[in-house]
């Protein structure tokens, strides 16, 4: 019996090693999307990062910068789950410092995810530090920017999983223009029948993280996961939304049939 366990541990150890190695090799994905609205101006270039999870991440800020060095970026969109322990705030700020090196023309915008709220009463401190580092945090609110003479509304909907989403509040005072929504849990799109958006960016599912043979563990994570909608570009009521596989991991620092993701969206 003992020999059988030894023989079994060999393949399992190798599989774990390969799964851990996957966390060091990000996929750089480029999405080109024509908007449904009347937007006719210059393309908007968005760098989208999600689920960095400082507790379990293999991509260093230096590596992230190297992957994109020289890329022209208008907006950096961060869609939640950055950390869950206060002591990792300085580590995350190092990533922010590197993101500023890209000199995004209209700034960095962020929403929180369910893991960020594990900070509990320190979430306010985290937001304050982000804002001190020139990151606009949107918690059920919006900001407008002018891109080549046209209004682009950046709408941040707070985390749906932890029941902090208030869509009506997030859209309050919205101006007539292109609507770009940032949120963590993409399941919120199923509640947005009466709210127009041109594009929605999200994360949360990690593309399954362990997608072998199927991401059975995602079934409990809402209707989209049960429909096997866990990554990539999708449409709901003809409105496009994107689910990033995320840059970091949770639980074990491994990925099977999933890679860390860096996404460049070009909207035209």
What is the tally of beta strands? 12
What order do the strands of the largest sheet run in, or round the barrel if closed? Answer: 1-12-2-3-4-5
CATH topology: Purple Acid Phosphatase, chain A, domain 2
Class from secondary-structure proportions: alpha/beta
Compact summary:
This protein is an alpha/beta fold.
Topology of this structure?
Elements: H1 2-22, E1 27-33, E2 44-49, H2 61-68, E3 75-79, H3 89-100, E4 108-111, H4 123-132, E5 135-137, E6 141-147, E7 150-156, H5 167-170, E8 178-182, E9 199-202, H6 223-226, E10 232-236, E11 239-243, E12 261-267
Parallel strand pairs: 1-12, 2-3, 3-4, 4-5, 7-8, 8-9, 9-11
Antiparallel strand pairs: 2-12, 6-7, 10-11
Helix pairs in contact: 2-3
What does this structure look like?
This protein has helices at 2-22, 61-68, 89-100, 123-132, 167-170, 223-226, and strands at 27-33, 44-49, 75-79, 108-111, 135-137, 141-147, 150-156, 178-182, 199-202, 232-236, 239-243, 261-267. The chain has 268 residues and is an alpha/beta fold. The protein has one domain (2-267): Metallo-dependent phosphatases (Purple Acid Phosphatase, chain A, domain 2, 4-Layer Sandwich). The strands form 2 sheets. Strands 1-12-2-3-4-5 form a 6-stranded mixed β-sheet. Helix 3 (89-100) links the parallel strand 3 and strand 4 (108-111). Helix 2 (61-68) runs parallel beside helix 3. The longest helix is centred in the first third of the chain and has 21 residues, at 2-22.
